[in-house]
Amino acid sequence: MARDQHDAAPEGTAGKAANGTAEGRGPSAAQVAGYLRRHPDFLAENPELLEVLTPPARARGDGVLDLQSYLVERLREEVDEMRQARDDLVRAGRSNMAAQGRVHEAVLALLGTKSFEHLIEIVTTDLAVMLNLDAVTLGVERCGQDLPPVRLGGLYQLEPDTVDSVIGPGRRVMLRGEIEGDPAIFGAGAGLVASEALIRLDISPATPAAMLALGARQPDQFHSGQGTELLIFLGGTLEHCIRTWLDLPA
Questions:
Q1: Strand order in the sheet with 210-216
Q2: Dist CA 195 CA 213 (whole Å)
């Protein structure tokens, strides 16, 4: 229901103090109190004001204290926590979308390679930039045979059973934070690595175990609580590309 001009919220330039003198700015306490008395439903219609108002604690006598102010303060804290949780969720969603976009860009780059050497070059040089990382290496376990003749950095021979040892038997991905990079995996870039994602590559029954290692200087960029679907997708794409260029059975 519309309110008349008399009931409108008092303006600072028109208000007068209770003693009759003009207020410099804003309505007087008496004007605000009078307005609220005439409109007892004002706070019900504007509940957001309760977040900034401080109600008094009232003594009831006989040592009993009204808990109204305590309850209101607790509600404010709960609202702040909910807002923080909302903000964290929004940030996490944006971060996940950005990570998804970077992985998709990397996958397209792998699928667009012109040769096996070009594929290894993309993995060991370009993926770090595409994925916003500090070190990316490709490791293959020794099996009595030399690696294909690829004259590029970032391609390492690993000792037998290294993949099972660092990732775990049967696991596809291992995520670890708050670490020191292993030179056997990251080579000269190990000093930059404070968190890592290690991805098992099951290329072919005809090839030894292999691993894609992603390292970041941020200690919390990779951690055990993260999802691994995008990393498994990236690893699966790399497996497919290697099989295709080397003409290996699946």
A1: 155-158, 135-141, 210-216, 195-201, 173-176
A2: 11
Alpha-carbon gap, residue 189 to 180, rounded angstroms: 11
The first and second tokens of residue 206, run together, are 């005809």
Among 17-26, 93-102, 144-153, which range has the highest average pLDDT?
Answer: 93-102
- Residue 213 belongs to a domain: yes
**Paired tokens of 154:** 């970032």
Instruction: State yes or no: pLDDT of 121 exceeds 80.
Output: yes
Percent of the chain predicted with pLDDT > 70: 79
User: How many Cβ atoms from other residues are within 10 Å of residue 48's Cβ?
Assistant: 8
Contact 140, 157 (CB under 8 A): yes
pLDDT, the chain, mean:
83
Query: What pTM did the predictor assign?
Result: 0.65
Residue 131 domain flag: yes
| Residue 28 resides in a domain | no
Domain count, the chain: 1
Q: List the one residue out of 93, 94, 55, 95 whose CA is nearest residue 74.
A: 55
Nearest to 123 by CA among 230, 233, 242, 244: 242
